Each structure stands twice: as structure tokens, then as C-alpha cells.
């Protein structure tokens, strides 16, 4: 599979974001769960997988893309809540830090994905 320029651009920007998040996490590690490196890696992988699944869906049927995106967002949110819930039940002493760390990373990566999608759609509307 050959990467297009837009794919390479997305991946490089995602890697830069992850490097910044990692640096900030190292600086704030006393406030975060000990699992923060796994969470950063988790959100990096989920972002890559969702990007390529979304791109694949757009190539197949652009009309169904909105439904795919909304459904995948709901599934991700349910999965994320289940992960937090299970962790908090099993590790009560670290539950609060884990939940807060998880939600912070979720917000950071979700904002990034949303801005990338909005920018891409704006470019599509403008014919770029």
C-alpha cells in the first residue's frame, strides 16, 4: 500500500502531536497515572486506524461516510467509557488519575482529528 501525500502529512502531524503530548506527560508524570505511556500509544494507534478506515470508507462511498464517522465515534466513546469503568473498578487507588489522564488524552486526540477532518472538508468544498 502506497501512502499518498495527505496520508504522510497526517501521519507526520500525528507523530509531532504525540511527541508534544509525550514531552508534556513526562513533565507532568506526577499528576498522571503510571499507565500514561500506554494511553498515549493507545490513542496514537486508534487515531491511525480510524484515519485509514475513514479514508477507505470515503473512497468506497462518500455518501455513507457521515454515517460511518458518527457510528465509529459512538463505538469509540462506548469502548473508552468501558475501559475507564473496568480500570476504575479494578484499581480504585489509581482510578481517578487514570480516568483524568484518559480523558485528557481523549480530548487532545479528538480535537486533533476533528480539526484535520474539518480542514479536509473545507478544502474539498473549496475544490482544493
Salient structural properties:
single chain; 128 residues; mainly alpha; 4 helices; 87% helix
Describe this structure in words.
α2 runs antiparallel to α3 (62-90). With 128 residues, the protein is mainly α. Helices cover 87% and strands 0% of the residues. It has one domain (5-121). It contains 4 helices and no strands.
List the helices and strands and how they pair.
Blueprint: H1 5-27, H2 36-60, H3 62-90, H4 92-125
Summarize the structure in short.
This protein is mostly helical and 128 residues long. Helix content is 87%, strand content 0%. The protein has helices at 5-27, 36-60, 62-90, 92-125.
Structural class by sheet pairing and helices: mainly alpha
Q: Helix amount, in percent? A: over 70%
Low-confidence regions: none
Number of domains: 1
Mean pLDDT: 90
Give, in order, the helices and strands.
HHHH
Amino acid at each position: 500500500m502506497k501512502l499518498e501525500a495527505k496520508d504522510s502529512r497526517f501521519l507526520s502531524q500525528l507523530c509531532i502531536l504525540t511527541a508534544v503530548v509525550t514531552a508534556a506527560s513526562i513533565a507532568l508524570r506526577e499528576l498522571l497515572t503510571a499507565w500514561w505511556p500506554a494511553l498515549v500509544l493507545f490513542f496514537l494507534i486508534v487515531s491511525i486506524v480510524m484515519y485509514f478506515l475513514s479514508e477507505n470508507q470515503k473512497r468506497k462511498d462518500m455518501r455513507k461516510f457521515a454515517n460511518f464517522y458518527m457510528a465509529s465515534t459512538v463505538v469509540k466513546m462506548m469502548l473508552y467509557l468501558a475501559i475507564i469503568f473496568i480500570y476504575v473498578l479494578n484499581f480504585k487507588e489509581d482510578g481517578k488519575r487514570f480516568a483524568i489522564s484518559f480523558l485528557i488524552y481523549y480530548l487532545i486526540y479528538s480535537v486533533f482529528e476533528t480539526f484535520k477532518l474539518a480542514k479536509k472538508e473545507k478544502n474539498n468544498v473549496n475544490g482544493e
